[in-house]
């Protein structure tokens, strides 16, 4: 999938702007606060009808203006498609092939993107909660069954915790809730295991390429409950037994002590834990490899690679890692990169790409 061009009007610090893109690699260069991330954000907005930085759409409208527009054309193996999206005080309007859609869900999904931004480092460095959120979002995108089981699990868990906090908890009621929890937890656990196995295999291959074969990355599921069964029925039974075994302890502590709400993912390179022992560059490469693995997942899903948006990653990677990242990826995936300095870019990759100089809301190709 290729984004051939984009036009902005009153988007962030852009008045009007028309850009034509390179099918492989596009680099936005400029000092801080000139509008580089705003350009990536406009592509993300064109794809998903929302920003990756703010939940308040009106922040996207240029100061003192009424409505922001983003238009673009995507080409796939089969067709070329114009997309347009605008946002005003009245809300958002989206068009596919010049026809307005009544629901945004009919708009989203035509342009697929994967974005890597500095805060994605938290997938590695942050708390287990950040990693669970990452699995929930990514796994939820490809599996409705997962989303349903997770949402039911969370609801039953909240109810059970309320019962556990009562002065004289209704033990029978808690046992009924435990049965339901076992059922939902089994689905959540098996889907997570499958998702992490797949993404782990892709990430390991990508990490090997970026590190020039010197590092072997392992992404592993660290379930809170150590289980043995690998089918839903047996696992539900196994979990039921474990929840029952833990009930006296849970009554004493007044909370649910075991379950997928306490799961985690671990990352190791050549056998050592990345979170504890990894250098900054290794942690960043790990987070990047995991995000880039999504490119492969989306390709499996929709049959085309999405476009890749890389915000401010180059300065953190050494020249070899940069070169491997940009050369191995750009031949498969159209890539958009922001950087503050051209010297960040390895000269070996300075062909077959287009650079854009960004200065105070003006862009020169
Ligand atoms: N709604 C808006 N209207 C006008 N200007 C805006 C609006 N929102 C943000 N800006 C301006 O956009 C600029 C920031 O742009 P952006 O976040 O793209 O910076 P950047 O070039 O990526 O910088 P850095 O290298 O620091 O990340 C700031 O000058 C900010 O004032």
UniProtKB/TrEMBL annotation:
InterPro entries (alphabetical): DNA-binding_RecF, DNA-binding_RecF_CS, P-loop_NTPase, RecF/RecN/SMC_N, RecF_2
Record keyword 4Fe-4S present = no
Q: Where in the cell is it found?
A: Cytoplasm
The residues the record assigns to binding ATP are 30-37
**What is one Pfam family matched by this protein?**
SMC_N
RecF/RecN/SMC N-terminal domain spans which residues?
3-350
Gene3D superfamilies found in the cross-reference section: P-loop containing nucleotide triphosphate hydrolases, RecF/RecN/SMC, N-terminal domain
Q: Which UniProt keywords apply?
A: ATP-binding, Cytoplasm, DNA damage, DNA repair, DNA replication, DNA-binding, Nucleotide-binding, SOS response
Q: Where does this chain mainly localize?
A: cytoplasm
Tell me its family.
Belongs to the RecF family.
Say what the protein does. Answer: The RecF protein is involved in DNA metabolism; it is required for DNA replication and normal SOS inducibility. RecF binds preferentially to single-stranded, linear DNA. It also seems to bind ATP.
Against HAMAP family, the record matches this protein to: RecF
From the Swiss-Prot or TrEMBL record, give the protein name.
Answer: DNA replication and repair protein RecF
Q: Which organism is it from?
A: Salinicoccus halitifaciens
């Amino acid at each position: 999938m290729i984004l051939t061009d984009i036009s902005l009007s009153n988007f962030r610090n852009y008045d009007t702007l028309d850009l034509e893109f390179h099918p492989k690699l596009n680099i936005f260069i400029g000092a801080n606060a000139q509008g580089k991330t705003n350009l990536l954000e406009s592509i993300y907005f064109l794809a998903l009808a929302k920003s990756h930085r703010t939940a308040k759409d009106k922040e996207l409208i240029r100061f003192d203006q009424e409505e922001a527009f983003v238009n673009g054309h995507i080409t796939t193996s089969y067709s070329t498609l114009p997309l347009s999206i605008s946002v005003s005080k009245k809300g958002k309007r989206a068009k596919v092939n010049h026809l307005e859609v009544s629901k945004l869900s009919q708009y989203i999904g035509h342009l697929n993107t994967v974005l890597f931004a500095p805060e994605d480092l938290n997938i590695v460095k942050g708390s287990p909660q950040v990693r669970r959120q990452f699995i929930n979002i990514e796994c939820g995108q490809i599996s409705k069954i997962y989303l349903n089981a997770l949402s039911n699990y969370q609801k039953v868990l909240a109810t059970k915790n309320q019962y556990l906090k009562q002065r004289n908890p209704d033990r029978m009621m808690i046992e009924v809730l435990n049965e339901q929890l076992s059922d939902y937890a089994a689905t959540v656990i098996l889907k997570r295991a499958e998702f992490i196995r797949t993404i782990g295999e892709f990430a390991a291959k990508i990490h090997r390429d970026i590190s020039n074969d010197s590092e072997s990355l392992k992404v592993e599921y660290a379930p809170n409950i150590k289980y043995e069964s690998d089918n839903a029925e047996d696992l539900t039974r196994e979990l039921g037994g474990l929840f029952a075994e833990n009930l006296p302890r849970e009554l004493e502590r007044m909370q649910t002590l075991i379950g997928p709400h306490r799961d985690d993912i671990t990352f190791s390179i050549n056998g050592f834990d990345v979170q504890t022992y990894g250098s900054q560059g290794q942690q960043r490469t790990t987070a990047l490899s995991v995000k880039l693995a999504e490119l492969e997942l989306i390709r499996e899903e929709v049959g085309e690679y999405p476009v890749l948006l890389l915000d401010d990653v180059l300065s953190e990677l050494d020249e070899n890692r940069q070169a491997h990242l940009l050369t191995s990826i750009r031949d498969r995936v159209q890539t958009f990169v922001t950087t503050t300095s051209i010297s960040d870019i390895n000269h070996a990759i300075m062909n077959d790409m287009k650079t854009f100089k960004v200065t105070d809301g003006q862009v020169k190709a």
